[in-house]
Amino acid sequence: MHKHFILHELKKTNKSRETTFIGSKQEVANDQTSVSLIIDLHAAITNSMKKTYGVFSKAGTSYFKQEFDNYLKNINYDLLQSSKSYIGDDNQQSLKSYLSSEILATGGHILIIDYIMDDKQYFTISMISNKMGRAVNITNGIPTLMNTEQIDFRELDLACRIDIEKYRSDQTDQNYLCFISGTDSISKYFVNFIGCEKFNQNKDNSRKTINIITDLTKESENKEELRKRAYQYCDSKIASRNPVNLYDMSVFIFGESERDKIVKHANDKGIEVDHTFTIHKQEMKRLISFKFKGDWIESFAFDKSHIGTDILINTQENEVTLKNVSRLISELKNEDQ
Questions:
Q1: How deeply is 186 buried, as exposed, middle or buried, from its count of CB atoms within 10 A (0-12, 13-18, 19+)?
Q2: Which of 14, 170, 234, 336 could be bridged to 284 by S-S, CB 3.0 to 4.6 A?
């Protein structure tokens, strides 16, 4: 199940810069307990709606990235010893140093795992907050309560999972780094430690992608149908908790022969958007709905499919006509009485 499983610890409290590294003396045994934990961690990352994707910086200057490349090249590489360096050394680029620089950040258990899941190889580095619990031990009929430290992936703070096959393929459309964070944005110090290339957050990626699709379909006679297909694709990815891929999305909307349509448009217009990311639900809704707030209107929203039938727009006269709104008329009459 796993080639390596290393568990270190960085102790640090909120509002303090003092950080203590406690390195493991040996790797975690490859047994049923460790296998179960890896399955849970992999699922926690896969099922998270806060995933963000990226690649290593082209500069390749991060300590972790250099050591990770050495690990992949050398079968005799001592991962346990080297991980102590890039996690716990006083080196400026170690995780300990990055963590110490963030006064509000807290420490936790550091899990470094190289494992196989569904015939694919992954390398994951994650930090799990310490959680105290209690266990019951009964010896010769005498119960004893004990305090224990527990690993709970519901408290998963920071994680980076590397798809090793994608990384080795060196394809520009493959975002092989998958991040997860316990907050809405990924902690900058962790991104810097990994050495990740600048990437968009999910909301930015979603907004740019929806704008691209809107632009590509605005001259089409079937624009509403095409936008609905885009919405269906995004909705299916949310339901399956998988990321969208701009190449696959293009095929779903425009057909196999137009696989590069969305990415090509982005490149032609100079729009920086990741090719793989987790879609933002509210941004996605803009494909089929319209919402306006401004001037003297507090809130005005409708399904875009009504444009041209129930909602008539006269750009020359700056007029919008609403049809088939008997309930609205009735309520307006009541307000006027």
A1: buried
A2: 234
